[in-house]
Design brief:
Layout lengths: L6 H5 L12 E5 L7 E5 L5 H6 L2 E4 L11
Antiparallel strand pairs: 1-2, 2-3
Length: 68
């Protein structure tokens, strides 16, 4: 079975039910080490943040204001 998308459906903005789950971000700045930004679901515990979710070191991410 296939679904057909009309032009009206393709152009409609996403609703909250259509979007991906919300993520939280935490930036950790340590003296003498690059900052790290971790993206994770808000309900993840500390162990899940270290083992399952995405962490990027400074230089791999930019401020949203810098890309607008």
């Amino acid at each position: 079975m296939s679904e057909r998308v009309t032009d009206d459906e393709a152009e409609r903005p996403p609703t909250p039910d259509d979007s991906a789950p919300a993520l939280a971000a935490e930036i950790v700045v340590s003296q003498g080490r690059p900052a790290e930004c971790t993206l994770f679901p808000p309900d993840a515990d500390d162990f899940e943040r270290m083992t399952t979710w995405i962490t990027a070191k400074e230089g791999s991410f930019v401020s949203l204001d810098d890309v607008r």
